[in-house]
Amino acid sequence: MNETPPIRPGMIVGILGGGQLGRMLALAAAEMGLSCHVYCPDPKSPAFAVAAARTVAPYEDEAALAAFAGAVDVVTFEFENVPAETLAFLAGRAPVFPGARSLTIAQDRLFEKRLMEAEGIPTAPFAEVAKQADIYSAIARAGRPAILKTRRLGYDGKGQAVIRAGDDPVAAWRAIGEVPAILEAYVAFEREVSVVLARGRDGGIRAFDITENVHENGILATSTVPAWITPALADEALAIAGTIAVALDHVGVLAVEMFVLPEGAPRRLLVNEIAPRVHNSGHWTSDACLCSQFEQHIRAVAGWPLADPARHSDATMTNLIGDAVDAWPALAAEPGARLHLYGKAETRPGRKMGHVNRIAPRSDG
Amino acid sequence: MNETPPIRPGMIVGILGGGQLGRMLALAAAEMGLSCHVYCPDPKSPAFAVAAARTVAPYEDEAALAAFAGAVDVVTFEFENVPAETLAFLAGRAPVFPGARSLTIAQDRLFEKRLMEAEGIPTAPFAEVAKQADIYSAIARAGRPAILKTRRLGYDGKGQAVIRAGDDPVAAWRAIGEVPAILEAYVAFEREVSVVLARGRDGGIRAFDITENVHENGILATSTVPAWITPALADEALAIAGTIAVALDHVGVLAVEMFVLPEGAPRRLLVNEIAPRVHNSGHWTSDACLCSQFEQHIRAVAGWPLADPARHSDATMTNLIGDAVDAWPALAAEPGARLHLYGKAETRPGRKMGHVNRIAPRSDG
User: Fold this and answer.
1) Which of A315, A351, B16, B43 has the fewest C-beta atoms lying within 10 Å of its C-beta?
2) Which residue of B lies nearest to A330 if distances are taken between CA atoms?
3) Among candidate residues B297, B294, B291, the one with its CA nearest the CA of residue B311
């Protein structure tokens, strides 16, 4: 598939998923002279407003998928919960990047952890919980506190339940819906970081600077560059993320979230989770780099050369979640801040409505 | 009209004109959570591909204009050759920024020059040429060489004829189509610069750094910041542009092109022409400022606070005209360069197909 000729200006990029990530991908593609066709079941998808063409249909609608594949020159996706069958169906009809392996592994926490094991990449201790009876042996392995997570379809803290000393493990099993899960040991981390990199069709890798992330209630709150991390740990983080990209034979942007453990821990970096796509912790790149993660992803899937990911400024990205977006007039007036709003009609608690990038001259020369 | 309430996220910006400027305005509006409706007679307009809604109709189609005005929350335009009657018709039905005065004056070279006279702003000597017989007295006033220019609808060097010593002035009159014109004295300038500023609905003005421009065959070739200009001349240029913005009661981005004359000239800055809109010589702002001229224009017409126009990098913008766009693969691979393509289906000689911004750390601290 990597022999596919590059996408030329005027050609059409098909994007599965019409949320804010799809919207920002479509905006980046437009700057490159490409046209976008967004496919999403939700007729209110914010990406539709900036796309030249749209398909509103379920991901299982083979007639709609076939028409979509016939109308575009390359297919990519904005999120990893597109059904694997959808991608397989499309892959027989159009070039698809990233490929099935990235999607299949990233949409299942157990597959993700097993890939890390196979590659010798440290993670928190974990155990599979396929049925209720597995919980006890899983706790024996992971200890307490631990977090029970659905294998699939969890994001922004959804599909998770904490099991602390004294908690009834069966209550946690019921809370996540009695579905296939994994139990992960709770990690007393010092900080969270992520690597957002891109891998081209030719296998070349370019990583943006490592970002330091703060989550609140399971949802990313802020991302800051430069991260507070030693050069040696930064190199290790980049090497880990690169190993994962190669193991997935990934093409496109890949985000790898990691925990940094306190000094003295045997391994100071543990991989928390991966996302085979543009990622919220890379939103700062839009205003602190010449090429954003969105353009870099389109470059990768289009077969263009990857851009220099150098950062010209320091940045802190703050998500605007739910009612926080009501502060937009003050944010629009704030010097050094750039406001990004997603065009979502309805504000709901926990919903990502926009973000603001606060930019400053580089502090680290 | 300036009592109009601000445009809120989710509201709709109507844009008259669907070329690359309309496209880049629509992209900027989308980043701000606004939706765009583009109105353009040409069904192949590149802005349509990034707009939520489109109207393909002549500018004289009152039914289409009325429907457009009813569908949007504010109207702006990407170019000054929208008929004044179109803007007047819309202004009775929706808020329109910039207003009729900016459009009327900027679309007529004679009105433009008379405004400068009234404001005490120096220009090249000029004279009206309403009919063939006027040419001789005009030459007596402006001297030779001089440039005969149509009052209306000229751009990128079109509608112009040079009259040198020995040339038959009547041939020039015929070359421009025997339409109302002005004759301008040829100016032996040292360099060309432009001021791109924005004026908000509240009258506040923010100017981007002065840009140095090079034209080839009457078409902008490159724009560079910082411009090679003394601080005193830069201040004078900013003051002149601000005076014009106020005189027009302009709202939105305004570009003022000026000639810098050699040292020793009685007045070193002459205004060449103005554009009541985003301008090719401001394209560098997309990659060298936190807020581009496109976002700044949308902010102004939406009634949002203007952004800080500070420049974080040096930049040179190079237009990709006609076949020059064929170099896109090399440009896409060039470190420090950001390629912008306009999604135009057909490459034609003299047609602006895209531009490239080459960015470097600030040389002037």
Assistant:
1) B43
2) B305
3) B291
Contact A77, A15 (CB under 8 A): yes
Q: How many contacts does A have with B, using Cβ atoms within 8 A?
A: 113
What is the rounded CA–CA span in Å between residue A167 and residue A144? 10
**For testing contact with chain A, the best of B8, B201, B290, B334 (most A CBs within 10 A):** B290
CA distances in angstroms from A171 to A101, A136, A147, A148, A184, listed in the order given: 34, 13, 12, 11, 16
Q: Chain B contacts of A36, Cβ < 8 Å?
A: 49
DSSP conformation class of A344:
-
Q: Which of A343, A338, A335, A329 is nearest to A357 (CA)?
A: A338
3-class DSSP state of B316: strand
* Closest by CA position to A100, among listed A84, A89, A113: A84
Token output for B128: 């009206």
Minimal Cβ distance to A305: which of B36, B290, B332? B332
Q: What are the helix (H) ranges across chain A?
A: 20-31, 62-71, 84-91, 100-106, 109-119, 134-142, 169-175, 231-247, 285-288, 293-302, 328-332
pLDDT tens readout for residues B233-263: 999 999 999 999 999 999 999 999 999 999 9
**Interchain proximity A325–B291, CB inside 8 Å:** no
**Residues contacting A289, CB < 8 A, separation 6+:** A208, A309, A310, A311, A312
**Interface contact A31-B341, CB threshold 8 A:** yes
Query: Is the CB of A338 less than 8 angstroms away from the CB of B291?
Result: yes
Is residue A273 within 8 A of residue A290, CB to CB? The reply is no
Chain A positions touching B288 (Cβ under 8 A) are none
Between the two ends of chain B, the Cα-to-Cα distance in Å is 41
Q: How far apart are alpha carbons A223 and A203 in whole angstroms?
A: 27
Across the interface, do B361 and A312 touch by the CB < 8 Å criterion?
yes
pLDDT tens figures, A342-358: 999 999 999 999 999 99
Q: How many residues are given for chain A?
A: 365
**Angle, CA of B59, B60 and B62, to the nearest 5°:** 105
Would you state the structure tokens that stand for residue B44, as one six-digit string? Answer: 């192949």
Q: Do A52 and B52 touch (CB under 8 A)?
A: no
Question: In 3D, which of A287, A275, A312, A329 has the Cα closest to residue A21?
Answer: A275
Q: How far apart are CA B270 and CA B191, in angstroms?
A: 11
Could you give the C-alpha distances from B134 to B177, B180, B181, B261, B270, in angstroms and in order?
15, 10, 10, 28, 24
Name the band, by pLDDT with cuts 50, 70 and 90, for residue A158.
confident
Nearest CA in chain B to A50: B50
Find, in chain B, the residue whose alpha carbon is nearest to that of A24. B31
Say if residues A210 and A239 touch (Cβ distance below 8 Å): no
Residue B338 pLDDT level (bands cut at 50, 70, 90): very high
Which stretch of DSSP H or E encloses residue B148? Answer: strand B146-150
Alpha-carbon span B237 to B213, nearest angstrom: 14
